[in-house]
Each structure stands twice: as structure tokens, then as C-alpha cells.
Amino acid sequence: MLTRLIPDPFKRGRVRVWLLPSLLVLAAARPAGAEPCRLCSADPGEPEARAAAPVRVEVEASLDFDRVLLTAGSGGTARIGADGTRTSSGAVAPLTGRAMVGRVVVQGEPNRSIRIDLPKRIELLGWHGGRLTLSAVTTDLSSWPRLDGSGRLTFQFGGEVRVEGDAEGDYRGDVPITVEYP
Amino acid sequence: MKMIKRFAALAVVGGAVLAATPAVAAPVAVTGAKPQAKVTILKPLVLTRVSDLDFGTVLLPATVTGTLNVKVAQDGAMTCGTGLTCAAAAASVGSYNVKGTNRQVVQITAPAVTMTNATQAGSLTVTLDAPGSVTLPNSGNTGVDFQVGGSFNVDSTTTDGVYSGDMNVTVDYQ
């Protein structure tokens, strides 16, 4: 709320205070959860508030299970951890050395907190029809990810695929990742 | 009048400040190629014998000089070393069928075979002649056939008799 002291020409020695209606509207219109005022003083935990560098997100590697070999009709599960570990269970042979964890690079304002969203489940579509589900999607991000001193953060993501005995062929799906400054 | 004017001026400034407040930043998606998850599921390979490799009857000369070779190629053509008499019509190439996932390349391993004489001491080593790989043209019960030929040598120490041995051909996805 901004006030301006305006001398009252009709009442000398006294000062009348006016609350400007436009600024009252400004205060009322600020939506809940809106980004803090960029002209305001900085939060103690954040660098000085100013126009932040735009955030960019690029993929370095897709999550690739390579070839998953069924050893029996009962099916099984193939997993790639966010740390790159490869495991399999059930009637699924060990994953090949070409199976790769996904890797993404985020760039933006140095030392700035960042919020990264990935879905927990993704549908993979087969070239000749059929669907598989990539579930238990995990990342190696900390609870409060933050860009480093050069404005960069690299993280990995993995997941698991349950394969039934009658599945075969190539399957793939997009992994929607969004990033923003909190 | 002056006060009203000044008030109006302040109201305009307030309105300008309101308009300049930046909008809430929207989430940013991946630039360029989107990250993907991908997997290729392969059915188990099934290898089935279709026919045996048979060199038929090979007639040795009274005296074998040096080392003589007998061969059945992948296309079934038979060749006999000089001095040997081979019944090509009775020979046949070996054949296998492999089933698996469509469009996958399958590697074939065909190690040498030791044929042993059924009635006397003696053995012959057969070097198999098989394709290095085949590409599956389908999935399911049809699969694809491939042929396996071979060759062996005889010399003056070779004993007569019926020789046989098991072929240990294996396949794997490349």
C-alpha cells in the first residue's frame, strides 16, 4: 500500500493521507502463489532477486533397455535404475551392456533452485500395435535440486518394464519432462 | 482542481505499475529432441533339426596317397578328392529351422564334429560349413531354414566303416 502525503490547501498545518485506488487494486489483484515481486528484496535463501536467466532443458540420452530377451512365456521385468544399474527378474534374460539410463541437462540461473517434473508411468507403443508400461520412473535428483555455480544440472532417470510372454518387437514412448524456477 | 488533477496523475502511474508486473513463469519443456524410453522385446529362439548332413558312401582307393578331402557344400554340391569315389546322389546337406522375432539377425555357431567309427577304432573330424547369420523374416511358427554342409579328410590311416557324430549347432540373437 502506497501512501502519499498531500498538503491540504484548505487546511493549513494539517496533512491529509490519500490511499491511491490503483495501488489498492494492485494489492488485491496479486494471485495466491504468484511469483514474488522481481523488484522486491531477495529471499534470504536465494540469490538477489532479479531477472533470471531463462531455463533450458536438453536430453543427452534416452532411456534405452536395448533388447530384452524373454526366456519363457511367463514373462518378467527389466529395470534400469537412475544410477544406471541393470537388473531383470522372472523369465527375462540379463540386460545387455547397451542398455542405458536416460540423461537430461538443465541450464539456467547459477545457484538457482529448480523444479523438475517427470511422470511416474509412461506408455510405450509398439510399431505393430501393442503397449507396454514403463513404471516406477525414478531420478537421481536430490529433494531440492539446484543449478550449480555455472547454471547447470545434469540428472539421470530410469524405470522398469513388465513384459508378458506374448510381447515382442520395438516399443517406445516420449518422456515428458518440464522444468521451472519455483 | 489541482488536487483532482494530481490524484488523476497518480492513478495513471499506479495503473502503469500494475500492467508492468511480470506474469508467472510457465514450466519449460525439453528443447529439441524429446527424451524417450525404448525397448525391443525378443521372443526365445527355437532351433529345430530338419535333416542330417550325410556324405553318403565314399570308396577309398587301394592305396591312399596323401590327404584326400570330401566335401558337401551348403548348396548340396559334393566334391571328392582325386582317387576317391563318391556317390553324390546319396549325399545330402544338413538343414535347420530357427524361429524367433521378426527382423532380428541370428548368429549361427557350428563347431567341428567328431565322427566315430561304429565297428572299428577310428574317427574323422568334420569341419562344418554354415552361414554366419540369418535374418528372421517373420515371427512365430514359420521361422527360416538354413543349410549346413561340411568336409573331412581321409588318408592312409583311415579305417573303413560307418562313421557318425552329433552336430552341435547353436544360434543366438546378434
What does this structure look like?
- The complex is a heterodimer of chains A (182) and B (174).
- Chain A is mainly β and 182 residues long.
- Chain A has one domain (13-27, 52-180).
- In chain A, 5% of the residues lie in helices and 42% in strands.
- In chain A, strands 3, 5, 6, 7, 9, 10, 11 and 12 form an eight-stranded antiparallel beta sheet that branches. In chain A, strands 1-2 form a two-stranded antiparallel ribbon.
- Chain B is mostly beta strands and 174 residues long.
- Chain B has one helix and 15 strands.
- Chain B has one helix at 2-20, and strands at residues 28-29, 36-42, 46-51, 58-59, 68-72, 78-80, 85-86, 94-99, 105-109, 113-117, 123-129, 133-135, 144-154, 163-164, 170-173.
- In chain B, the strands form three sheets. In chain B, strands 3, 5, 6, 8, 10, 11, 13 and 14 form an eight-stranded antiparallel beta sheet that branches.
- Strand 12 (169-174) of chain A pairs antiparallel with strand 2 of chain B, so a sheet runs across the interface.
- Chain A: This is DUF4402 domain-containing protein.
- Chain A: Keywords: Signal.
- Chain A: Residues 1-34 form the signal peptide.
Largest sheet of chain B: 8 strands, antiparallel
What overall form of chain B do the CA principal axes indicate?
A: elongated
Helical fraction of chain A equals under 10%
**Structural class determined from secondary elements of chain B:** mainly beta
Major sheet attributes of chain A: 8 strands, antiparallel
Gross morphology of chain A is: elongated
Looking at the chains present, what oligomeric state does this protein adopt? Answer: heterodimer
Low-confidence stretches of chain B: 1-23
Number of helices of chain A: 1
Question: H/E series of chain A, N to C?
Answer: EEHEEEEEEEEEEE
Number of strands of chain B: 15
Output mean pLDDT of chain A.
79
Order of SSEs of chain B: HEEEEEEEEEEEEEEE
Q: Could you tell me the mean pLDDT of chain B?
A: 87
Query: What's the number of structural domains of chain A?
Result: 1
Strand content of chain A: 35-45%
- Using the CA coordinates, give the radius of gyration of chain B: 38 Å
Number of DSSP helices of chain B?
A: 1
The CA-CA distance between the termini of chain B, in Å, is: 91 Å
